[in-house]
Amino acid sequence: MPTVRKFGAVRFFFYSDEGSEPPHIHAQKGELFARFWLSPVSLARPGRWKVHELRRLLALVRRHQHEFLRAWRDFHGH
């Protein structure tokens, strides 16, 4: 479960066995989880986050899209 980046209490990561799925990143803060597609950037699963938190997370994913995609491709060999 490689962690790509942390912003405060939010951890962005992917699971090591997800290489057959399109590139995406998970966000976790405590018991809250969300998933974002990386190309194009969009919300895949909102989990139980509040709307304003999801907007903030989506902005972070957009800002770091290339870093997240590079980490995904480097790890999964794409």
Mind explaining what this structure looks like?
This protein has 78 residues and is α+β, with helices and mostly antiparallel strands. The chain has helices at residues 51-63, 65-76, and strands spanning 3-7, 10-13, 24-29, 32-38, 41-45. The two termini are 17 Å apart.
What are the defining features of this structure?
single chain, 78 residues, alpha+beta, 2 helices, 35% strand
| DSSP E strands, number | 5
How much beta, percentage-wise?
Answer: 25-35%
Q: Please, how many helices?
A: 2
Strand neighbour order, sheet with most strands? 1-2-3-4-5
Give the structural class: alpha+beta
- C-alpha end-to-end distance: 17 Å
Share of residues in helices:
25-40%
Q: What is the overall pLDDT average? A: 95
Gyration radius (Cα, Å) is 11 Å
The poorly predicted ranges are: none
Q: How many separate domains? A: 1
Give the CA-based shape: globular
The arrangement of helices and strands along the chain is EEEEEHH
Main sheet record:
5 strands, antiparallel
SSE inventory with pairings:
Layout: E1 3-7, E2 10-13, E3 24-29, E4 32-38, E5 41-45, H1 51-63, H2 65-76
Antiparallel strand pairs: 1-2, 2-3, 3-4, 4-5
Summarize the structure.
By secondary structure, the protein is an alpha+beta fold. It has two helices and five strands.
